[in-house]
Specification:
Layout (H helix, E strand, L loop, with lengths): L8 E6 L2 E5 L9 E8 L3 H12 L2 E6 L8 E8 L2 E8 L5 H9 L2 E9 L2 H10 L4 E10 L2 E9 L5 E6 L12 E2 L11 E10 L5 H12 L2 E6 L10 E8 L6 E8 L6 H9 L3 E9 L2 H10 L15 H5 L6 H7 L2 E5 L2 E7 L10 E8 L9 H15 L3
Parallel strand pairs: 3-6, 7-10, 12-15, 16-19
Antiparallel strand pairs: 1-2, 3-7, 4-5, 4-11, 5-6, 8-9, 9-10, 12-16, 13-14, 14-15, 17-18, 18-19
C-alpha cells in the first residue's frame, strides 16, 4: 500500500498521510530550468511541439550561430522550456544517444542560485560528474552551469542565471518565424517520471535523498499500481521546497509485460518515461490539443459511472470530462484532473501527462486502475503486452 517516509519530509500531505521535511536543504532549487530532448530532426520536432502542444519560439543555435556539431531549438510556454537538439556528427554522443534510445530526454536542467555549490555538494555526496562548473558569457552577461549523472543516460544540469539577461543563454539567438500557433494553456512542469530496471528503484530513491537532499513523499507498491496482468512500484522524491518532484518507477512481477518493462525494452535502458505539465483549464487545453492531432489514452466510459461516489462534488461538468477522456481523483486537500497522451514518437517510450490541480497534492492513485488498463490495451495493440 502507499506509505510515506516520516523521517524525510515535513508539511507535505500526500494520499492522506502526513509526511515531514528534512531540516537540511543543502541543494536549494528554484525550479525546472529546461528539459532537453535529443531528437533525430530538431526542426521537425519543433514544428510538432509548436503545432500540437502550443509551444512558442524562443531561441536557436546551429550553423548560423557558429555551432558545427549540432543544432538546438528552444521552445517556451509560460514557465516551461523545451530544448530540442539534433547532431550533425554521426559519431557524436548525441548521435549515439539517438541510435540507442530514439528521441528522448537527455537533460533535466535545474535552476539554482549557485551552480558551483550545487556541483560541489552533490559530488562530495557521491554523484558522478557530467560537467564541471563552466562559465559561458556574451554581451548579456554570464551563465554558470554544471552537471551530474542520474539514472541511465539522463543527466541533471545546474543552471545559474542571476548574472544573465539574454533570451536563453550564450550561443543562442532569438528565433522567430511567421508560423506561430496559439498556446494551449500549459503552465509549468508538475513532475517528471523516471523508469528504472527491476531492483533499482530504491537505489535511485537513495541517490536523490543522499546526493541531492530530496525526500520520499510517498511510496506506491504493486498493490497500489497493478491490474490482473501487470504491476509496478514507485517512489516519489521531492526537493526541499516541493517544486521538483521525481517519481521513480520499477517493474513488479506480473503475468505479462508491464509498461515499465516495455519502456525499458524499447528505450534500451532507464530513462524519463513522462513529463507531467500543468494547466489551469484542462478542458480547454485538451480540446485544443485534440484538435491539433495529439492522441490520448482511451478511458472507458464506465470509468465515469463511479466518479461522483469516489470523488464527490467537483466544479467541472462530468459529461464534459467524459467527452474529452479526463480523469478525476481526490485527496484530503482537494482534487485533480489528469489525462495522458499516447507516446509522442513511434517507439512506445516518452509521453506527456496533462494535469490540473484543484488543491490536491497527490498523483491520482484512484485513477491507476483505469489508466493501467488503458495502457495495457495499447500494449496489446502493439503486441508487446
Amino acid at each position: 500500500m502507499a506509505t510515506a517516509d516520516l523521517t524525510q519530509v515535513k508539511n507535505y500531505d500526500y494520499s492522506g498521510e502526513k509526511v515531514f521535511e528534512k531540516a537540511q536543504d543543502f541543494l536549494p532549487i528554484n525550479g525546472t530550468d529546461y528539459v532537453e530532448l535529443y531528437v533525430g530532426n530538431a526542426k521537425q520536432a519543433a514544428h510538432y511541439y509548436k503545432t500540437a502542444f502550443g509551444f512558442q519560439e524562443l531561441a536557436y543555435a546551429g550553423l548560423e550561430t557558429g555551432l558545427r556539431d549540432r543544432t538546438s531549438y528552444v521552445l517556451v510556454q509560460d514557465k516551461i522550456r523545451l530544448v530540442l537538439t539534433s547532431p550533425f556528427d554521426s559519431n557524436s554522443d548525441i548521435s549515439h544517444h539517438i541510435r540507442l534510445h530514439g528521441d528522448g530526454v537527455k537533460v533535466i536542467a535545474l535552476w539554482v542560485d549557485d551552480a558551483r555549490s550545487a556541483y560541489a555538494e552533490t559530488i562530495k555526496r557521491g554523484a558522478k560528474s557530467y560537467m564541471e562548473p563552466t562559465v559561458v558569457s556574451d554581451e548579456n552577461g554570464e551563465i554558470v552551469k554544471s552537471g551530474i549523472h542520474t539514472y541511465g543516460d539522463t543527466v541533471h544540469l545546474f543552471i545559474e542565471r542571476k548574472n544573465y539577461k539574454g533570451i536563453f543563454m550564450p550561443g543562442f539567438t532569438a528565433w522567430q518565424t511567421e508560423y506561430q500557433p496559439a498556446p494551449t494553456g500549459l503552465k509549468y512542469i508538475d513532475h517528471m517520471v523516471g523508469n528504472v530496471e527491476l531492483g533499482a528503484m530504491n537505489q535511485w530513491a537513495t541517490f536523490y535523498a543522499d546526493v541531492m537532499g530530496f525526500a520520499n513523499l510517498v511510496t506506491f507498491d504493486d498493490k497500489d499500481i497493478s491490474t490482473e496482468y501487470t504491476a509496478l512500484m514507485s517512489k516519489v522524491m521531492t526537493n526541499g521546497n516541493g517544486r521538483i518532484k521525481f517519481p521513480i518507477n520499477e517493474p513488479a512481477h506480473g503475468k505479462k509485460k508491464s509498461q515499465v518493462e516495455e519502456y525499458l525494452d524499447f528505450y534500451n535502458g532507464p530513462g524519463c518515461q513522462h513529463i507531467a505539465v500543468a494547466t489551469d483549464n484542462i478542458v480547454f487545453t485538451i480540446s485544443e490539443m485534440r484538435k491539433r492531432g495529439v492522441e490520448f489514452l482511451y478511458v472507458p466510459g464506465t470509468y465515469y459511472d463511479t466518479v461522483k461516489n469516489r470523488v464527490g462534488i467537483i466544479e467541472e461538468d462530468l459529461n464534459e470530462l467524459k467527452k474529452w477522456g479526463i480523469m478525476v481523483d481526490r485527496d484530503e486537500d482537494g482534487y485533480l484532473l489528469q489525462i495522458f497522451t499516447k507516446p509522442v514518437e513511434d517507439r512506445p517510450t516518452l509521453f506527456f501527462e496533462i494535469i490540473q490541480r484543484k488543491g490536491a497534492k497527490s498523483f491520482g492513485k484512484g485513477n491507476f486502475q483505469a489508466l493501467f488498463e488503458s495502457i495495457e490495451a495499447e500494449q496489446a495493440r502493439r503486441g508487446t503486452l
